[in-house]
Amino acid sequence: MSPDTGNRLSGPLPDPSQEAGYPPEHPQRSGFFTDTSVCIGCKACEVACKEWNLLPEDGLNLTGMSYDNTGDLGADTWRHVAFVEQRIDPSTRSRVDIGMPGMGAPEPAPQQEAGDATEVRWLMSSDVCKHCTHAACLDVCPTGALFRSEHGTVVVQDDVCNGCGYCVPACPYGVIDMRPDTGGASKCTLCQDRLGEGMTPACAKACPTESIQYGPLDELRERAEQRVEQLHEQGVTEARLYGHDPRDGVGGDGAFFLLLDDPEVYGLPPDPVVTTRDLPAMAKYAAAAAGAVAATIAGCFLGGGR
Predict the structure, then answer these.
(1) How far is CA 287 from CA 8, 283, 292, in A?
(2) Where in the cell is it found (predicted)?
(3) Is residue 9 part of a domain?
(4) Are the C-beta atoms of residues 151 and 134 closer than 8 Å to each other?
(5) Does residue 194 lie within any of the structural domains?
(6) Least C-beta-crowded within 10 Å: which of 30, 62, 192, 305?
């Protein structure tokens, strides 16, 4: 139960696995830290995810808006690399080395008039299921097909899912989706089968720049804060963390990000809230309303008998 709100469906929750019934000696909560400042858009994570999880390919047709052929996360796409093209004003933005791989220092930008936004930068980010501390998809599942693992992740059991689809609108990030071939829900499992063998998830293992980092969630949060401080010292003042705070609307994400612009630029909601947060209050109101209706009906019968 959340110590701050008394609501099991929202607020900070130190140990979601123990809350789910695992003994205190269960493994540390694990997750992803995705540092978008070093993502090169290679899509190795997408390919590794599909190969390991036997997911069908998405086709080789580009969206026409970027070098993106997957579009977004879905039932068959558990990792999605976003390509965001931004035009910037070279007169107001300096070139800063943020540790990206390269072949040497860039050529100096030619002299241009102020306001002539002709330079371009790419923001690339590998999106994934957030494995929320408070997971609405898990809350609304009527069959128990979605469950909290001993590692703190949220996993779908294909053979238990009845295809009701309640989890799809419940997700505040729009991650989970239904597979047309099986009719069941599908999303990232954080490679639950690999974790059980002490292995790193396939996407993190394949990432050549360590943009995707896997490990104990507390250690990843500390590492991420240090990385943000490093970038700020280098002049990248727009660097910020997303999904790392246990006090946010989902109790903190098990997969969080370092971003170089607002979350909306990457297609992420700016202030996600677990969609089942208000269910306890709604139940109280519904009970009160039902009591009022019952009292009214009883009053009508009693009054009519006089």
Answers:
(1) 19, 6, 9
(2) Cell envelope
(3) no
(4) no
(5) yes
(6) 305
Q: Tell me: do 268 and 287 sit in the same domain.
A: no
The pLDDT value given to residue 90: 65
List, in order, residues 6 or more apart from 5 with CB less than 8 Å away.
Answer: 11
Residues 149 and 281 in one domain: no
Mean pLDDT of the chain: 85
Interval 43-55: pLDDT, tens: 999 999 999 999 9
Together in a domain, 265 and 289: no
Q: Binding-site residues, please?
A: 39, 42, 45, 49, 129, 132, 137, 141, 161, 164, 167, 171, 188, 191, 203, 207
Give the domain CATH number at 260: 3.30.70.20
CA distances from 62 to 65, 79, 83, 155 (A): 8, 16, 11, 30
Same-domain status, 270 and 281: no
- Rounded mean pLDDT, 263-285: 78
Total structural domains within the chain: 2
